[in-house]
Each structure stands twice: as structure tokens, then as C-alpha cells.
Amino acid sequence: MRFSVLPFLAFILLSGTASFAAEVVAQSGQQAVLADESEDGSLDLLFSSLKKTRDADEAATIAARIDEDLDYSDSATIRLLIAWSDDARNQQHPAAALDFLSEAIALDPEDPAGRRKRAQLHYADHNYHKSMDDLQAVLALEPRDIGSMALMATILEQSGRTEQALSVWRHYLDIYPADRKVAAHVDAEDEKLAGKRI
């Protein structure tokens, strides 16, 4: 049964969670700068820098900024729904958390922010099939999304589909070659597979 957001909205307003709305509005000017930078192609520049750098610490900083940019929505309404989803999850209301994200996705299916978050929640709830559906949709919108690739590869590994996971990890390394931990993991799994084939 679909969760109704109206009773929960009343609950969170009475419990003080409306402060999340104030926080989102208060930060709107700050976050508008991120939107302007993305429109200017800063995301492309970040991905270009990530591919070129071989310094692991510098690459990690760039990757974190990319993740931040991909989590950002230009829509204040979507940002508010995501904030409410986060709070619902923290208050142990998983159905409400997912419903807020579904509302955010319905508002703009081309905005990956809500889908990225929902994929993570589905994964946390061990609903890997739904998480994969959201990850595929996100990667259709932004094929360079290394965070979504990493989660997809993790799910594939946990499902026993090692070769498919390695294919995703290799694509991840094409975009983020300085991730030494993932590179070492891929090398180790390749050796295991090679040993099985002998």
C-alpha cells in the first residue's frame, strides 16, 4: 500500500522536523552556486581531472566533489523532499523515506539526485533488485557516475556475479584510475578467476 505523505508531514511539522525546510531554504543561495558551476560544465572538468590525476588523495577529493554535485538537485522542492526522506529514515520511518524519494523522482525523472538516494536506501534494506533498477536509471542519465557504479558492482559481487561486477569495476577505473583499493581488488579477483580456469 502506498504511504500517504500528508499524515507524516503533519507529524514531522509537530515534531520539529520542519527545521529541515528552513535549512534547505537558508542554504538555497549557497547551493545555487553549485548549480551555476554545473551548468558551466564544472562536472565535465571534474571528471576530466579525475581521469588525469594519479595522486590518490587528490583523486579522492575530486571524487567526493563529483558525488556532492550529483547528489545536488536544482529543484528546491526535490531538495526538500530528499531532506525529509533523510529525516524519516533517521526516525525509523523507512516507508516514508522511500515515498518522499519517489515523489522527488516523479517531479523530475531526469534528475538523478532522488534516484541515487533511493538506490542507496533499497540497498540498505537488502532490496537489491529495486536498487539495481534505480542504479541503471541513474547511469542512463550520467554514465560516469562512479558512486552508482561502485554500488552496482558491489551488488553484483554479493549476488555471485563476479565477472559482471569486474566489468563494472573496470569501467569505474577507466573514469577513476587513481582508486588503488579498487584496482587492487580487481587484480585479486582476476587472479582468482584465472586460477579457476586452469
Q: How would a crystallographer describe the biggest sheet? A: none
**Helix-strand pattern:** HHHHHHHHHHHH
Shape: globular
**Number of DSSP-assigned strands:** 0
Proportion of strand residues: under 5%
Query: How much helical structure, as a percent, in the residues?
Result: over 70%
Give me the CATH fold name.
Answer: Serine Threonine Protein Phosphatase 5, Tetratricopeptide repeat
Fourth CATH level, the homologous superfamily: Tetratricopeptide repeat domain
Name given to the CATH architecture: Alpha Horseshoe
CATH class bucket: Mainly Alpha
Structural class: mainly alpha
Distance between the termini: 52 Å
Q: Give the domain tally.
A: 1
What is the radius of gyration? 19 Å
What does this structure look like?
This protein is mainly alpha-helical and 198 residues long. The chain has one domain: Serine Threonine Protein Phosphatase 5, Tetratricopeptide repeat. Helix content is 80%, strand content 0%. Helix 2 runs antiparallel to helix 6. The N terminus is likely disordered. Keywords: Signal. InterPro entries: TPR-like_helical_dom_sf (IPR011990).
Q: What is the element layout, followed by pairings?
A:
Elements lengths: L4 H10 L4 H8 L1 H12 L2 H11 L3 H16 L4 H15 L3 H14 L4 H13 L3 H14 L4 H13 L3 H14 L4 H18 L1
Helix pairs in contact: 2-6, 4-5, 6-7, 7-8, 8-9, 9-10, 10-11, 11-12
